[in-house]
Amino acid sequence: MLKTRLGKDLLRNKWLYVMILPVVIYYVLFHYVPLYGTIIAFKQFVPAKGILGSDWVGLKHFEDFFSSIYFFRVIKNTVLLSFFNLLLGFPAPIILALLLNELKSPIFRRITQTITYMPHFITLVVVAGIIRYFTLSDGLLNDVIAFFGGERISFLQQPESFRPIYIISEIWQQIGWGTIIYLAAITGIDQQQYEAAKMDGANKLQQIRHVTLPGILPTIMIMLILSLGNIMNVGFEKIILLYSASIYETADVISTYVYRKGILEFSYSYSAAVGLLNSVINFTILLLANSFSKRASKNSLW
Amino acid sequence: MKSFSKSKIHQSVVVLLSLTLLSAGCSNSANSNNESASTAPSGETPAAEFSYPITGGPELTFMNEQLGGTPEHMPIDDEYEKRTGITIKHLGGTPMTDQKFSLLLASGELPDIFLNTWLQYPGGPDKAVEQGYILKLNDLIDQYAPNLKKSLQEHPEIDKMIKTDDGTYYAFPFIRSEAGRVYGGPIIRKDWLDELKLDIPETIDEWHTVLTAFKEKNNADAPATFRTMFLGERTGGFAGAFGVMGNFYINDGKVVYGYLEPGYKEYLKTMNQWYKEGLIDKDFASIDAATVDKKMTSKVSGATIGWQFYIEKYNSAAQETDPDANFVAAPYPGAAKGQLPEFGQLDNAYAGTSSAAISSTTKNVEAAMRWLDYAYSKEGSMLNTFGVGGTTYTLENDKPVYTDLVVKNPEGLGSDQVMMKYSHGTNFPMIQQDNNLPAKYPQTTKAIDIWKKTNHESHLLPPVTPTADEADEMSSIMNDINSLVKEAELKIILGTESVDNYDEYVQQMKDMGIERVLEIQQAAYERYMKR
């Protein structure tokens, strides 16, 4: 064994291997071993019988989901919410990072950055509470509307206002946090490129367009592929905390629907089946996005 | 690394191995105990000779169905322990509808005594027994629960309620007293009514007049506020006046589903009208209990539907700033003067809640049975109803009379708060007796008689038990339907959907299989009547 290349490498870099061992063990234990549990998606799982002892039911749970009257609605809500969230939420931190980068005073810049990424550390329960109280018919938002002579509306009971509320609060909470990686990428850009651009007479905007953006494009692409891979996982906890039966029409997504169904019927198997379906869709989109990005911009995850 | 000698490693491995072996041995011996306990052992104390406290000081684990961590240790717990000789270790609680419950089942680490609404177990209580989570109690009751057995022989109507169709006993029941079956209804600000020279409203029209007056004359932003669960689901609310309620109930021997009845559309139409006129809280579909409390006690609202103890709560909170504030119970509204509403709020004497099952993993079946059986004995019943003799009550002419600790509490606690420490007044497996506890406000005491005035009794669906297969089928149909009706109801009241579309929802429920559910319920009901 020690004669092979791998053996030599193991010997030479044994401490590096020791260092990575915990990570490998973690992934095997917590991400690969539990995978065998997904077989309950094809069984009628009864905890008392155990995973292996439960009866096989084939694709029954998938059929149940496809035949539910809510199937199209929850798929539609999930995709739309996710899509708009990505469309508006993805560019936001990039724009903010570009703006922060142009600030002259380092103190002012640091303060701004801190203020924008603070909300990331507020727990969702508190954020949901804030949203709830602000959108009540006698809440802050309606006080402002009424002050300008508008009509008071109970926003969280209006199906059409759920998406804007969700997306705006999402951006508010995540924008500052998202800028960190882009700012890091911007600092990595060679200053000589800016010098050269200035020599050629480029103004600020042209510098951003021709130097900064191309410089951070690889980072942007990687981030985009990663977020596309999460397109079906919209913030389930946040929706659970905000929605009520009056806005299921727009707010009920795959995960919340499965949660209600799973809780009421203990349908572990059903939930597992829908979760698996979700992962398959996510994985497919990730593959597509990756290969597309590879062809279009030479940047890819693999 | 070098400091670790080979022998050291060797030693520690040996220690580890022997430890695991030891623990395996422990669990094995525990298992064998378990077997000997659950198979009817010979030479145990026969029922007649047993007397409390039990010997050997066993310890049992216990869970109820209230979320919110481990409850405080109370004097009643000490008293129970002293009398039964059994120590109870409380592990908190989880309702069956919470995710924690499924996780608990999946973990296999169940408490010895498990309070829950076993009637609601998916597939019915039979299924919980069949899947091996809880014990079938029939033989065990004969062996270890003479008090419960005697109660069931004396009260065949209770016996009928607490077993399944095939005669399985699965839990020690919480049987509500006649007065304890009603505990919720409309609540209104009497001082506002007096100011406006209006009587307490008794019909839908009178309610309309009163709420309008509250809005216009008292500047109440949301004259009536409540959470959605009080709208036809947990209580008949205003729906009773239209002869419907949002649930399954009996009409002349037939099981019906309120949402399908024509009266329901009429009711929604009226509610939508009220909402449009601003008589109902604009935010009612998305508010929590704390918000309702705040509005009721800060002059934003003057009427609600809620539980009895809200009257106590609102009066004491509002009177701090507004000494005239006076919240009283209002009757469930009828369709016309002097006509009783069909629905209010009424539980079955056995609603299934807080019933104690014994989990199949328990290592001490006898202790669990004895501990639970104590509540059905004469002494146990006295303790749970009136608290600890000499502390909370004294006997005068064989009648319990409350001591000053309860009625004039030195710390200013309400009598119900004191009794919570020294007795199990409610939500405990027992046959509840009326404790005639004086409330802080007479309005609270009067509430029950006011809310009782309905025809609800004749519509009450008893605790039927569909078979496991039927229950499975029913829950998979009802799941989507429950979502649908809540959504339809709210959208129509809020006006985001026209009331004319209600017929489409009814059609949709039929497409989803509501008629099949009614068949199942009807069959289960008929089987129940034959028990």
From TrEMBL, chain A:
InterPro entries: MetI-like, MetI-like_sf, UgpAE/MalFG_permease. GO terms for cellular component: plasma membrane. It is found in: Cell membrane. The chain crosses the membrane at residues 15-33, 80-103, 115-134, 171-190, 211-232, 268-289. Keywords: Cell membrane, Membrane, Transmembrane, Transmembrane helix, Transport. Its main location: membrane. GO terms for biological process: transmembrane transport. Belongs to the binding-protein-dependent transport system permease family. This is Sugar ABC transporter permease. CDD domains: TM_PBP2. It comes from Paenibacillus donghaensis. It is a multi-pass membrane protein. Signal peptide: none annotated. Residues 75-289 form the ABC transmembrane type-1 domain. Pfam families: BPD_transp_1.
TrEMBL record, chain B:
This is ABC transporter substrate-binding protein. It comes from the Bacteria. Residues 30-42 have a biased composition (Low complexity). Residues 1-32 form the signal peptide. InterPro entries: Bact_solute-bd_prot1, SBP. Residues 30-50 are annotated as: Disordered. Transmembrane segments: none annotated. It comes from Paenibacillus donghaensis. The keyword Membrane applies. Keywords: Cell membrane, Lipoprotein, Membrane, Palmitate, Signal.
